[in-house]
UniProtKB/TrEMBL annotation:
Gene3D superfamilies: P-loop containing nucleotide triphosphate hydrolases. This is Peptide ABC transporter ATP-binding protein. Keywords: ATP-binding, Nucleotide-binding, Transport. Residues 8-258 form the ABC transporter domain. Residues 321-342 are annotated as: Disordered. SUPFAM superfamilies: P-loop containing nucleoside triphosphate hydrolases (SSF52540). InterPro entries: AAA+_ATPase, ABC_transp_ATP-bind, ABC_transporter-like_ATP-bd, ABC_transporter-like_CS, Oligopep_ABC_C, P-loop_NTPase. CDD domains: ABC_NikE_OppD_transporters. The keyword Transmembrane helix does not apply. It holds the Pfam family oligo_HPY. PANTHER family: D,D-DIPEPTIDE TRANSPORT ATP-BINDING PROTEIN DDPF-RELATED, TRANSPORT ATP-BINDING PROTEIN. Residues 322-342 have a biased composition (Basic and acidic residues).
Amino acid sequence: MNTQPALVELSDAHVVHKARSGGLFTRDRVYALTGADLTIAPGETIGVVGESGCGKSTLAKVLVGVQRPTRGTVSFRGRDLWAMPPAERRRAVGGSTGMIFQDPSTALNRRLTVRHILRDPLDVHDRGTRQQRDERVRELMSLVGLPRALADALPGQLSGGQRQRVAIARALALDPDLVVADEPTSALDVSVRAQILNLLLDLKERLGLALVFVSHDIQTVRRMSDRVITMYLGRIVEESPAALVTDRARHPYTRALFSATPGLLDPIDPIPLAGPVPSATRPPSGCPFRTRCWKADGTCAEVMPDFSVASAPAHRFRCHHPVQEDESTRDLVRRSDPMEAP
């Protein structure tokens, strides 16, 4: 386990948005992130998984200072990010973090050349001389495998994979300590995804980056990460070492997620979940997963469980009735299916 001081630390972070509802002057509260506690150490990779709308992207934005929490703190190298003067916060966040967005076709300015896109962070933060900035642009293009001939190309003249390489290079322009990749391959063709994932892994190792990798592709998250965070309806419900998340996850939702991914060597049916994810404007009382969980009872409806610690280090979960560590997912499939229950 990484024993270095925390690079970024969230403490009881909440994000609540206001969304227009039926009336002209009425707004619902959208609970996008609730009570998030998370510590990221230098050089480690954290994967974040969960269904659409579970708060993964909100968590990513909070980590890099794009989204201010409604309540709670975001500490960067031990200092409260949102207690800093604005100019200092911009320097701390802009100079030490980078973000790679889901769709490079919308994340890049269509009117700027690759050279201009990569120079922009250097210009904004006044890094080096003009000559040094030009040299840094060449370094960045080489780092992500882009031919130098593309420096004067516009994003519309590039392939999807090339655009994402530009987005990655831009995130690395200021030599950050932390890069957050929010679904970085979901908009790409299947044939290109592996190239981009391998590039991210290679850059992480070469540059010593801390990486937060947000994705629906949970098997890829497992392979890339040191730790895996499971989110449900704005809450972190489990945090597990990646090596244990497939077979020894304790939260029923985590087991259900991983059972739904096809296994080529030992395929199993997915654990059935009843109904859709509840609305983030009116989350269920108690445990938010209870409306879809086969283990839920009255206690789950009344009380949100605190974190419990598993036997393995750095493994914790929030569940009143957790899956046993030695219980196979195949057995869970049978027990959770009402047609097969004894």
